[in-house]
Structures are given as C-alpha cells and as structure tokens.
Amino acid sequence: QVQLVESGGGLVQAGGSLRLSCAASPVSLKINALGWYRQAPGKQRELVATLTRLKTTNLADSVKGRFIISRDDDKNTVTLQMNNLQPDDTAVYYCNAKRFDGSRWTEYWGQGTQVTVSS
C-alpha cells in the first residue's frame, strides 16, 4: 500500500510560480512512475506530468516550457515546479503513483491540493 501526502499549492497571480511536493510512503517502496494530474471545475482530470524511475518524462503540451517535474528516489518524493502560471492552470492538483509488484500494476492518488491563479 502506498500513501501519498502532498504539500504546496495556494493562490498566485498570473506569471507567478508555485512548487508542489508529494511524499510517498513507505520510503522503501519502489514506485515506477510518479506524477501529477489536475482537475478544474466542470472538467475531467488530466495528466500534467509524470516521471518514471528510468527518467522518462511525460508532460502535457499545455505546460511544456513552464513546468518542471523531478523526483528523489532516495526520499520517494516528486516535485512539480510551476512557472509562468496562468489562470487556465487553476485546478486541484493530485499526486499520482503507479507501481508494478511483479504481477500487476496498482495506481494510487493523493488527496489533492488547490492551485488558484488570478489574472
């Protein structure tokens, strides 16, 4: 079982920056992919960025050039640095983990953290 605890988020003006962090526990558990999804009011949840243990990155087109994802496998954390934020980035951001235990894939979600960008 993987538990995800998010931190960061908040209110920022357009053009500003925020940093989201997510810690997965237990720390000893190897997680194949860590990342972030977001869900705006009235919209479906969408991928923002994911990063695998092999350092393969997947970024949504809408955040390329503005958001940077990184992970620390020793601490089992993933960080999303969000720069030049725009009002369209306003959403609840969810940490996501995908783990393969040798026989099946399991997906885990954090509780979500609100990001609000004012114009």
What does the model show?
The relative contact order is 0.32. Strands 2, 4, 5, 6, 9, 10 and 11 form a seven-stranded mixed beta sheet that branches. Strands 1-3-8-7 form a four-stranded antiparallel beta sheet, with no helix packed on it. A hairpin with a 4-residue loop joins strand 7 (67-72) and strand 8. The model has no long low-confidence stretch (mean pLDDT 96). With 119 residues, the protein is mainly beta. Helix content is 0%, strand content 57%. It has strands at 3-8, 10-13, 18-25, 33-39, 46-52, 57-59, 67-72, 77-82, 91-100, 105-109, 113-118.
Entry summary:
By secondary structure, the chain is mainly β.
Structural class: mainly beta
Proportion of residues in helical segments: under 10%
Taking the sheet with the most strands, its summary is: 7 strands, mixed
H-E string: EEEEEEEEEEE
Range of strand content: over 45%
Give the distance, in angstroms, between the N- and C-terminal Cα atoms.
40 Å
Low-confidence stretches: none
Mean pLDDT: 96
Shape: elongated
So how many helices?
0
The radius of gyration over CA amounts to 14 Å
- E-strand count: 11
